[in-house]
Task: structure prediction
Amino acid sequence: MSVKQRAVVACMMAFGLVLVVAPAAAAAAVAPAWTTYSPSYTVQQQGCGTVSGLTFHLSCTSTSGYDRAERRYVDYSSGQRRFQGSFRITSMGGSRISLKQTFHDDVGPFFLLAVENGGRLYSVEGGATVASGATVGTTVAVQTIHTVGSKLQVYINGSLKFTESAPDGGNYYDKVGAYRTSSGSGPITVVWSNLAFAYQ
Result:
């Protein structure tokens, strides 16, 4: 074996030794599994709002007082919570109706996902556009992931569309249905489906 060949073999052996003694790459951190649960709820009907199962209807065109047809789910105060479901607007003569809420007892309406006539989804607090395409007859999938004390993330049809800082302290709860915002009016009928809740 030539001097050059012996040098190559020596280098290969040294490299092999390095591979043996080098620590293995750290495994990627695995997020804790989601635990599904079925929170209790109360039905809220006010003004011209009516609820039948997962069908929520506002029948009037009023712009004053309160018009709501909603499910109000039980409080939570810590951890990470996931809500998911799909809605389909079957008729809409009004505009600016809240369809999904995350409510904070200490500050009131924390996040309201509302729809305008024409299909724009927006955050009521601040008015930012979240998505488009929520037109009559179209099924829209919604998922919110709320890390208490950190942030709320909103996914529409599987894509992250909106993130908001989430204060710590106090109780939160989810709502779905139809709620006329202060600048909105009915009528509207919306059907929710495939509701699921989970926590970490």
